[in-house]
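Saturday, quiet lab. Running sequence design on the structure tokens for the scaffold JK sent over.
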């Protein structure tokens, strides 16, 4: 499983903190400055800005329950500091000259003002998930922020308490077990255990269902935000949404052709392509997840412990319904040189397995990204979401290379079954990206009809429009359109992996120069440079789906769907081009 929408989960789990940061007042540009002010330099303003970011990050971590104290202070103390530091930042921004020169300083000031405006304008939801109830999603008068929060609460409440064979399991455990259970009847029963969550999200499936109302509201409100996440991803690459759609279809067609003609039931999809998960499960106990992940990053030249990564990965109730990584403290120059940013990784891992391991390696990819950013304070943040998500998969895709498995797990699956395991999951993300793109373009569409068309056409999944099994990813409700960052990001991941291998050599089993190369070529800029510029500099051309399509073709097609057995009742497709 993949990570999460960075800003939404960070704030949704912190009760009322957006209000604390906003301080009840609009951002700097909306206020009238005092009659006479003492001018300040951009350097002074940036120092205040990074102090505010630190308070914001500490309050987020404490509010989410990941930490009890930060730098000796509790949540209430950090909330007070956040208000005070924001007020000082706003005051300093008012005291800047009307015209800021040079251009680099002007861009930095604009970025800081924009950051404040986004929080104060409600881009950060003020309704805390812990104060929301899943049942609120059924209220027909809910606004967009309330719907997002209440539907996320459904993923916490219902996705965290699924009932299967007399046991309570969470959504992540269920998804992992769909790769592992040999008995098709048990797989179908486990799939059905998602029913309460699906019903809460999709309701009766009419145009008044919670999810369909959310899609309409998101599409209607997109203009004031500068577009949907799909629009943002397209802008990040300098292309049109139509180009994004064409690329996603091209990738899905490559999978359709390479994965063979047999069809499978939706509850069998992960099992059919999950032989590598079953082969390696005994070699990935829960206790090995963190040591194995950290060992790989040390071999890449990015020791998480030395970088100060903080973990909250032990199971506990009330955690965010998806794993995520975020800033814990921003970097800055000191009298002893540069002090790197540090990251927090939050996840729930009650069990081991390749599925959980791959997610943790992905989140550590985010964590070492944080520590590599070395730029002026105004840009000390994530770059485009598209690049952020794509880069984290550069190390995590190595988990599905037999050489990596042999070195770090002491056993390996075959190449074809490993690649099937990887790309079958990637293709679900691509399908979800295309699903959201089409729904946001036509909000009146029936989600189940759109999902059934995509998955039957490209993933060989038998149609079941009566089952809203698309409603498995929390990002669908926390930030509609976000899945395109994983879908389109897979294309960039393949490009970056190829470029890294060319620069530092194969890195599936480690490469000491990998982290330095990645930091210098991609990561150190933070939010200063956009994805289009970085990828053009890296590749010498615009990115394309070609590298990803070439990787998909490595799986071959002989034998159609492998490792399913007669229980899956896989049969050839007919009557569909």
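Result came back. Writing it out in full:
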């Amino acid at each position: 499983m993949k990570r999460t929408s960075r800003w939404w989960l960070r704030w949704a789990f912190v009760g009322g903190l957006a209000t604390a940061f906003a301080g009840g007042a609009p951002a700097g540009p909306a206020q009238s400055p005092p009659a006479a002010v003492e001018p300040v330099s951009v350097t002074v303003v940036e120092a205040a800005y990074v102090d505010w970011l630190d308070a914001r990050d500490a309050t987020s971590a404490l509010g989410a329950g990941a930490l009890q104290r930060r730098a000796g202070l509790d949540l209430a103390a950090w909330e007070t500091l956040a208000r005070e530091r924001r007020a000082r930042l706003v005051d300093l921004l008012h005291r800047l000259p009307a015209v800021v020169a040079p251009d680099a300083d002007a861009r930095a000031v604009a970025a800081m003002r924009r950051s404040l405006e986004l929080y104060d304008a409600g881009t950060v939801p003020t309704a805390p998930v812990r104060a929301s109830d899943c049942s609120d999603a059924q209220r027909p008068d809910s606004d967009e922020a309330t719907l997002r929060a209440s539907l996320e609460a459904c993923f916490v409440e219902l996705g965290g308490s699924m009932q299967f064979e007399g046991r309570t399991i969470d959504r992540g455990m269920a998804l992992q077990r769909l790769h592992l259970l040999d008995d098709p009847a048990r797989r179908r029963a486990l799939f059905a255990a998602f029913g309460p969550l699906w019903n809460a999200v999709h309701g009766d499936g009419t145009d008044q269902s919670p999810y369909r109302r959310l899609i309409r509201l998101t599409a209607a409100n997109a203009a004031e935000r500068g577009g949907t996440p799909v629009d943002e991803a397209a802008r990040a690459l300098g292309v049109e949404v139509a180009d994004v759609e064409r690329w996603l279809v091209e990738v899905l067609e490559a999978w359709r052709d390479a994965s063979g003609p047999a069809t499978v039931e939706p509850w069998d999809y992960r099992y059919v392509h999950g032989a590598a998960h079953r082969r390696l499960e005994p070699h990935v106990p829960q206790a090995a997840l963190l040591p194995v992940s950290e060992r790989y990053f040390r071999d890449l030249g990015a020791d998480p412990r030395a970088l100060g990564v903080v973990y909250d990965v032990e199971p506990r109730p009330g955690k965010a319904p998806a794993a995520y990584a975020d800033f814990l403290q921003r970097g800055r120059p000191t009298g002893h040189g540069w002090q790197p940013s540090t990251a927090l990784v939050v996840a729930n891992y009650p069990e081991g397995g390749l599925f959980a391991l791959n997610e943790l390696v992905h989140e550590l990819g985010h964590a070492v990204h944080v520590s590599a950013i070395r730029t002026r304070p105004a840009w000390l943040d994530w770059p485009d979401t598209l690049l952020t998500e794509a880069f984290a998969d550069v190390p995590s895709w190595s988990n599905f290379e037999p050489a990596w498995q042999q070195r770090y797990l002491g056993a390996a699956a075959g190449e074809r079954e490993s690649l099937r395991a990887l790309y079958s999951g990637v293709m679900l993300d691509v399908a979800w990206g295309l699903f959201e793109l089409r729904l946001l373009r036509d909000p009146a569409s029936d989600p189940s009809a759109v999902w059934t068309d995509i998955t039957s056409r490209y993933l060989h999944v038998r149609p079941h429009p009566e089952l809203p099994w698309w409603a498995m990813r929390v990002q669908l409700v926390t930030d509609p359109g976000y899945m395109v960052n994983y879908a389109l990001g897979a294309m960039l991941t393949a490009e970056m992996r190829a470029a890294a291998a060319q620069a530092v050599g194969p890195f599936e089993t480690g490469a000491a120069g990998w982290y330095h190369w990645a930091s210098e070529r991609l990561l150190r800029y933070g939010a200063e440079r956009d994805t289009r510029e970085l990828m053009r500099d890296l590749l010498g051309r615009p990115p394309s789906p070609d590298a990803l399509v070439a990787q998909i073709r490595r799986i071959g097609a002989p034998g159609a769907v492998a490792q399913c057995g007669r229980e899956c009742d896989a049969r050839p497709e007919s009557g569909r081009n």
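Notes for JK: The chain has 25 helices and nine strands. The first strand starts at residue 162 and ends at 164. Ask whether to fix the surface positions before the next round.
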